[in-house]
Design a protein that fits this description.
Helix content: 40-55%
Largest sheet: 5 strands, antiparallel
Structural class: alpha+beta
Number of helices: 2
Number of strands: 7
Number of domains: 1
Radius of gyration: 28 Å
Distance between the termini: 66 Å
Order of helices and strands: HHEEEEEEE
Strand content: 15-25%
Low-confidence stretches: 82-92
Shape: rod-shaped
């Protein structure tokens, strides 16, 4: 109790500065705010990566649909938009009729052209842990759905 009275007396005499307790309280509050903010920031990054993949899949779909319209509604296996090695994975593509789309950094897209004039686009981001067999986003032209 005497130390509290001494601190108050020093304040009355005009001494300036913060006490150790005041500084500790500020440091604890900053620590709590940081502990809350960091997980929120990390979740926002994941959401941004997922949105990026969705956007790339939609752009690839639009390019293929435009090329299909120019080919009288026929979906063809556009070899010039597929990777020469795997025949499925697209990094950056141009369709047979010149429609272009760009795949964002760390995103990957594969297109599976089916015999019934439909196709399926799979997209994944390496930061999200997606792979060709476990894509983050899938678009099916038969249903027009993005999942």
């Amino acid at each position: 109790m005497k130390s509290v009275q001494n601190a108050l007396n020093r304040r009355k005499k005009g001494e300036k500065g913060f006490t150790l307790v005041e500084l500790l309280v500020v440091v604890i509050i900053i620590g709590i705010l940081a502990a809350v903010a960091v997980p929120i920031y990390l979740n926002q990054r994941k959401s941004a990566w997922r949105s990026s993949v969705q956007s790339d899949v939609k752009n690839a779909s639009l390019a293929i649909e435009t090329a299909s319209t120019n080919a009288n509604g026929q979906i063809k296996n556009f070899a010039d938009i597929t990777d020469a090695t795997t025949k499925t994975q697209i990094m950056n593509g141009t369709t047979a009729t010149g429609e272009e789309f760009t795949v964002s950094k760390d995103n990957h897209i594969s297109v599976d052209f089916k015999s019934d004039n439909t196709y399926e686009i799979k997209g994944w981001n390496t930061n999200l842990g997606g792979t060709a067999s476990k894509p983050d986003v899938t678009y099916n032209s038969a249903t027009g759905s993005l999942s």
